[in-house]
Specification:
Mean pLDDT: 83
Number of strands: 5
Order of helices and strands: HHEEHEEEHHH
Organism: Scyliorhinus torazame (Cloudy catshark)
Pfam families: DUF3456
Distance between the termini: 62 Å
Family: Belongs to the canopy family.
Keywords: Disulfide bond
Domain Saposin B-type: 17-169
Amino acid sequence: AVTLLLLLPQVRGAKDPEVYCGVCRALVAEIDWAIKKVDPKKTIQVGSFRISPDGSQKPNEISYARSETHLLELFETICSNMDDYALYVDPETKKRTYMRFAPRDSEKLGSVDFKNFKFDPENSKSLKFVCEGIVEEYEDEIISLFAHEADHAADKLCSEKSEMCDPPSQTHHPDL
């Protein structure tokens, strides 16, 4: 019983904003990547299958990539991709972010300097755990953002909806 009490503060501890923001942005990037891999011609029938007054039946077809069905399928496995992320410390600014260090399928990462990554197996587990929590808590918002091809999905989910990240800096553009 004493051991459990000692572990409770760690389990219920405050959310680390750096981790939650980084995982949220990584989650959006992973979903976006998975959507782009789907053949754009692939469709799925949705909605009602009512018979019109003339006796015909016209089901509604939408793109499979952004369908709720596909997004829910992605949610089952997407967080395992957090194993490919680690804490990255920018050598110049010392800014800490979570960045992908492993290339996807046919992707090239370019010149990644691995000495600026902080690899920690425990941290990798916590990234997956945080990701699963975000998916569970914000499932409806994620589906809504991706089903409707929202611009700036990471900012909308991670800053506006969940407030896990600070709002993107408002750069003043006098010429616009």
